[in-house]
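Exercise 4. Each item below gives a protein and its sequence. For each, produce the structure-token representation.

Item: Glutamyl-Q tRNA(Asp) synthetase (Ramlibacter albus).
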Amino acid sequence: MTGPDAIHGAAHSGYRGRFAPSPTGPLHAGSLVAALASWLDARAHGGTWLVRIEDVDAPRCVPGADEEILGQLAACGLTPDEPPVWQSRRTALYQSALDKLVAQHRAYPCACSRKDIEEALRALGRERARNEELVYPGTCRDGLHGREARAWRFRVEPGVVEWHDRRLGAQRQDVASEVGDFVLKRADGLFAYQLAVVVDDADQGITHIVRGEDLADNTARQVLLQRALGFATPSYLHTPLVLGANGEKLSKQNGAQALDLSDPVAALRGAAQVLGLSVPAAASVDDWLRGAVAAWAATPRA
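Answer:
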């Protein structure tokens, strides 16, 4: 699709995609890669593209960053087809999903602090390597044993979760042994990302998820929640990451600078290079985006 609908989307496609930034600061080069890829995939499919502000983790959010992000996207021609939504306004949906999981005995209260978990793992002879997942040992699975509940966890049953990524191919994870029962509602009363994103994607009818490769490791947990809640599992595509000087994912923590949008086409061109797209030169954002949609559509993705 390379006509007007390549820019504005088609009204009747069943494809629904989204870009879901956390408002912890302005967009940087890495986040533009994910935004552009999700937009291009929606346009190439003649679909609908949404923006969801993932501000469920309120302590990390920066006041005004949400509106700044929306302005940055608009400057790059990436305008959502429906009004944006904010996770902080959707907590009733998350609580309803948690209540359903509790009723199914798939969620249970947990009294453990991070220190408790680390001590329990040490007692089991399972020292955690640096940056390794802190695997929950199941301390509260059978009750709180007189302690006060701090959080709510999802009960993970044994077995390997398999899923397919359109770029990375076949994926598999043994969530029980590699993650353990994971948090749905935190000790501070905030809902965890895993639950919120699954509920939002289902509520918004998201059929295709295009996001950064750093989130691929979350997918198996989200598939388990989708199955437990009776939701369909979307198609996944995880994009290449922009790396910082230290070789890790570019982020605000390792010096990522806000996007320089004095020349939006130049910023988009940089994101396209990370995605492996060769887009013809263009004077305007709209013309460049048309070429980018054609380039994306011409690249095979499983």
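Check: Confidence is low (pLDDT under 50) at residues 1-12.
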